[in-house]
C-alpha cells in the first residue's frame, strides 16, 4: 500500500513538474507566455547544457525584468534554474562559465562579435542573438544598444524555446520598423470599456496609485514580448478628468510600473479641457490663454510623469469638441498641443476619423477632404492617425486614401483589435490576415510598389528619410479584466499579431499564427497545421456571412452586432451604405456617383472605376450593380450575393468540424469553451445570412438559387425587420 502510494506521489510529481500534454488545466491567463515543460528529452537536455548559466554586465530595472523572465521561463521549460553571474565592466566573457550572456554593445568584448552594420542597424530597440564558439565551448549572446533591446531579445530567445527550435547556430538581427507601437485603450474612468468585450478596464483607478496589481505587470510583460512600446490609457471619447492632478498621479504610478518594460503611457486629450478644467471662455487653439493653459498642463503632466508619451486626440468628430468649433483647422489644433509637448519630447497623435454624418455626403470621402489640403502643415512631432479604411473598421473596406496622399505628413495606421464589427468576443476571427492585407496594399504614391507598409515606415522618399523620423501604428485594444484578457481564446492571437505587425509591417500572418498557436496551445503539428489554416481563413469567412463583395456597415445600428441592413434611425440609414433598390445593390463611388475613386492615385482610380478591374471583394464598395448583371464569379449579382452568405455559414460549420477533431490535443477547458463559441458563431452566421438574404430579396425580387434552402423567417418579423429583437436562439434548426 505504502509503495503504491509512493508510486502515485512520484507520478503526480512528474505530472506536475512537466504538466504533461492535455492534462494541464488552462484558463488562458498566461497568454503566449506559458513556458510549458519541454517533453522532448534530447531538446530539453540540449537547452539544459546551453542555458545552465546567465551572465550580465550590469543591473538595471529593464535588465532585471529580462533576467526574471529568463529565469522563470527557463526553469519552467527545462526544470533547472540557471546560475546568474556578473561580469565586471570591460572584461571579456568567460567561455568556461558563461553560457548565456546578456550584454550591451558598449562592452568591447561584445561589440567585437558583431559587424558595425549589425550594431547600427538594430538601432535603439533592436537586438542581436548569436551562438558563438571557442575551443568547442558554445555560448549564446543576446546583445543590444539598449536595455530594452536586451529585454526584447530575451523574449525572442524564450519564443525559440517555446516553439522548440535549436539554439545551436543562432544568428538573428531584429529591429522594429516603426517607432511607436501603441495600444489604444478605449477605457472609461468608471471602468467600462467602449467597444470592449472582455470585461472591464484593466486600470483600477480607485486603488491607484497605491496598488500596483500583478496584472499590470503581466500586461506589460505580454506587450514587451511582442515589442509594443506605448499605451494610451483612456478612451478617445475623452473625459477631462484624466488630466486632473488626481488622475495624473494615478497615471504616473502605471507609467512607473510599465517603464522597465519599455512602455510609455499616453493620454487622450479632450479639446475643450481649457474650458472644462481651466474655466476659460474658449478652447480656441490660437487664443493665447488657451495656449498657455495647455503649456501649463503639459508641464504639470511631465512633473508627475517624466516619461509621458503625449496625447491622442479625437477632435471635431462625432460631436467631440475640436478646432472646427472656432473655425480653425486640424493643423491649428494639433500644432498648438504639439508645441506644448515639444520641449519634453512628447508627441501628438491626431486622428483623421472625422465623422459628421452629413446627409447625402459619401462618408468615405470626409477624412481625405479635411486632411489632404493640410499635408505639410503639421508640426514634426504630430502624427496623423488614420483608420485602415475610410469609414470605420469594417470587415472589409477599400484602404484609406489618406495613405499615400500625405507625403509631407507623418502618417500612422489605426487598426482595431477589439472586434467591434467582427462578432465581438464571440466570433473566431484572426485579424492577422486583415493587418497583412492593408499593410501590403499598394497606394501607387510613387508608382507601383508603394505599399502602405512603406508609407508608414516613411521609406517612400529615401532622400528625406532619417532614422529619427516619427513613424507608428496603433491598435484599439481588445483587453479587459476577463481571466483570459480577451474574451475569446483566439482574441489573444489578434493582440499578439498586432504587436508582431507593428514590429515589422511586412510580417506574415501565417507565421505569426503558427508561433502564436505553438506558444498558446501546443507544438503538436496535428493541431497547429489545421488550426492555423482555420485561423487564416476565418476573417474571410466572417466577411462572407456579414458583408461580402464589398458591402459595409449593415450591422445593427445600435450595437454593431448582428445584421441590420434595415437599420434606420434619425440621422442614420443603413441604406446609405448598401443602396439596395429594385435595380441592384452597392454604392457608385465612380465619377458617375460620389467620385470617391478620385481620392486614389490615378492608376488605382482607373482600376476602381471599371467594374471589370475592381477586385471582386470590393465591387459593391465602388459600384452599384444590377441584380441580373453577371459578375466575376460567373453568376448574376443576386445569385452571387446569396451564395456568399450561404458559403459563410457552411464555412463556420466546417470550422466547427475541424475544431471537434482536435479533441484531446489541447486542454479540455479551452477546447470546450471554443467549441461553445463556434456553435454560437454558427448560429449567428445563420442570423446574418437569413436576415441579409431575406432583406435584400425584398429589393431583388428574385428567387434564391436552387441549391440554397429557403432561410428561416420566424425571427425576422418578416417583412418589417424590426430591429433590436433579442438574439434568435431558435435559429438552431433554420
Ligand atoms: C467607432 C466606434 C465608436 C468610436 C469611434 C472612434 O463605434 O465607439 O468612438 O469609432 O473611432 O468605430 O472614434
UniProtKB/TrEMBL annotation:
Pfam families the UniProt entry points to: Glyco_hydro_67C, Glyco_hydro_67M, Glyco_hydro_67N
Keywords: Carbohydrate metabolism, Glycosidase, Hydrolase, Polysaccharide degradation, Xylan degradation
E.C. no: 3.2.1.131
GO biological process per UniProt: xylan catabolic process
Residues in Alpha glucuronidase N-terminal domain copies: 31-157
Domain Glycosyl hydrolase family 67 catalytic: 161-485
GO cellular component: extracellular region
The family this protein is said to belong to: Belongs to the glycosyl hydrolase 67 family.
Protein name as catalogued: Xylan alpha-1,2-glucuronidase
